[in-house]
Give the backbone structure.
Amino acid sequence: MPAHPAMPRPPSDPRGELAVALSDRIPYQAQVDRPKLTLPGGKKLAVWVILNVEEWRIENAMPRTVLSPPMGQPLLPDVPNWSWHEYGMRAGFWRQLKALTDRKIPVTLALNANVCNAYPRVASAALDAGFEFMGHGFVQGPMHKIENQADVIKRSVETISKFAGKPPRSWESPGLTETEETLDLLRLNGIEYVADWVIDDLPQDIATPHGTITTIPYSVEPTTSSSTHCSIFLPSNS
């Protein structure tokens, strides 16, 4: 999908990192001023269906909750909220798989890479269904809390590559979280586009020291708590 051209590559510091603020790497541009986006075959609408599958570690605080903690005090292990997630992996996923495959809907599977090890039955079913595998961290948790982000991204890409037989081209960070180095590390590991930057209805390119990476917005409005997401794109000036 064509995107707006990236800005010229900003100067780098001695470590090779871009010496600009993270937000400055995506300069403001009004949608009405952007070049018209033309979809393949003259199509008027693009729909991106993403199914998230994750590993929530019961010994950790839960990424999200369906039940508030008693008296407002989080407790570990958080059995009810971990069970909410686990139900999705044991029961909910299979209903969504059937609904999507019965309708022959192309699907992107955003998965924590360790799902390939912890839930191989789920990952295998998605692979057999022809879902595109999308990097989504190693286990569920914000990128800001990772001690060695470079290692986790590299390990995530390698784990998915080994399981799926090809490396992922795309990435959605857990909770759409990123640090100042995330984009650079993703591009270094072969990621071509990300879903974290919900700043526009249209794709946009971002410069990194390792080449251009494209942001395709993962609009949060159609997202459901049961981990199915749908993004809808209209060409410019439609």
